Amino acid sequence: MTTARSIVRGALADIGVVAHEEPMTASMADDALELLNALLDSFSLERLWIYHTPATPIVWPAWMPTQTWGPGGDIPSPRPLKLAPQATYQDVTAGYDSPLEVLERQEQYALLQWKGMQSTLPSALYYEPQMPLGVLYIWPIPSVGYTIVTYPWQPLRAFVALDDDLAFPPGYQRALRTNLALEAAPSYGVQPSPLLVRHAAEAKQALFVLNTVVGRLSLTPGGGFPQSGLAAFYSGRP
Fold first, then answer.
1. Could you tell me which residues are beta bridge partners of residue 136?
2. Would 219 be classed as within a structural domain?
């Protein structure tokens, strides 16, 4: 468990702004907390900071072409930044999961010629990260209800207060502390030491090695998409 106070105080100590005989002021703590949350928001855009994409079941009613995603939407969990490239739909009666293609680019969804097409079996999902609610599309529109399982890329959690205690995996406390120190240094007119710069880079690299997922090479004739054959629908060719 990691508190914002411990990260903030450690970061300011690393650049020599606070010490045992020079305690951290309330103003310094508030500024550093705001900067820490800005860092977490920014780091959320880097896939290698994301340590977990949880399996998220979504009840998908029959004849529903889209669902909004975010607080107050059809899917009330936090709005994802994007979706991991795997998803399934669960056929409860048959007792097994079937794969869904996750379209990662807007052009892929745009090239589907018959977006209102209906079927008993869906083939693909497309997530559009609109604000304030994202929009999740399914294709073809299922004529029966399913449970869809996706793996959303959620932003790193922010600290609401200095003594908030958040659970991060091993290595994150050091990475947040050292990178916060680098971020805060210009505000205090401090030039970070080469040792601090190296420690911050090493801490990030350790996380990136841990969070790297090496994909499997798949060769599909014609450059299409494995499993779903959606390339044929994009081009309109059989």
1. 67, 127
2. no
